[in-house]
Amino acid sequence: MSQxxxxxxxxxxxxxxxxxxxxxxxxxGYILSIVGVALIGMRPDLGLSTAQVSLIGAAALVGMxxxxxxxxxxxxxxGREVMYTADLLVMxxxxxxSFWVDSVWAIAVLRFVLGMAVAADxxxxxxxxxxxxxxxxxxxLLGQQIVAWYAGSVLAYVVGYLFLELAGPGSWRxxxxxxxxxxxxxxxxxxxxxxxxxxxxxxxxxxxxxxxVEKHLGVRVDGRELMPDPAERARRSSGLRLLMTPPYRxxxxxxxxxxxxxxxxxxxxxxxxxxxLSSFGMPGGTVMETLGTGLISLVFLLxxxxxLRLVDTKGRRPVIVWSFALMTVxxxxxxxxPTAPAAVALTALCAYAFLCGGPNVLDWTYPNELFxxxxxxxxxxxxxxxxxxxAAVGTYLLPLSLTGLGTGPTMLIAAGTTALxxxxxxxxxxxxxxxxxGAAPVAGRxxxxxxxxxxxxxVPQTARG
Length: 465
Description:
This is MFS transporter. This protein is mostly helical.
């Protein structure tokens, strides 16, 4: 199985699947960012306190903490395909209901459920994609999923800006409901996406796995190659408990902690970007602050592109270590210079955003490459959940910190969190570039095993089904 898929030709099928799987990250970026603009009108309309603003900002992230762990396990149990559409239907319902909210708690509950649905999509979609991709394209295409996240974030600020300009701050209900359109678009795109052949084989459905590989990859595979070995069956029965046993314990902690240290400052910045820029004296009122935050989101997106190339040419470990080291510098600068002019602050935050590209493209690459099929979605879900602890805490505390501690200490806390991420990567980051998807997680291996060079056997055009 591993050799057949890892060495299969890269085709239009892979491109379509990558596009379909990008829906979850894109919606996550949009849903988490649009609320930052919506709060401009929501705060005076509903008379929100600082604590209530923090609650609304963090609610979706708390939901992601719950949803990541819960649905990652469920996805490994019942399959990727079953969950692939259900989570989008939940997002549609919550987005529509957001238009009629009239209380803080109603908004918080809907944001919490939205967060659960978004977090469910990460282990579903990234595991499905990883289990179909050829090895030499896996790092790039998994990394591109985070590009979709920032595309969603940039789109949210563009849409929010247009609503502010055309309808004023009172249009915040339309902003919250606007994610419905994106959900429907990806529901259509995802129609017909197949189940993972690796999951099918691991669950005893070898015949189905053979047929789906031949249909979508055009390669003939021997059913005996797909049969899971006894070790794989044992791993499947262990489930979540296996993540905390050697050699997976360190990998589980690494994936969760570097993700946490990355997104804690990042999500707080994107959710409350206008407020951060205002603390540095950004002129022009709410519209200029929104445009400034949109620019930072765009730079986050641009920073992913050189990182996508580097993870495949230089390797995963050097990219993530150097990225964390350099990301600390602009945050520390703003921490020791809290009176910096708005232009300097915006430049420093854009530099931080660009340097985040390395960890960004490895957020889902690492957990998908470090764990076997039987617990892959569980591992992605757990990493997502752990990361959202940092994101929720950072998002909840940032407005309170800016008000209570000031800009300088707030930026120094963000720099310290990023430095902790650097330490985690220096100690625990492994190199998984070119590793066969089924080989890296085996006990006693270091994640450096290369994929076999045995070519896949093409199926004649008339036999592809």
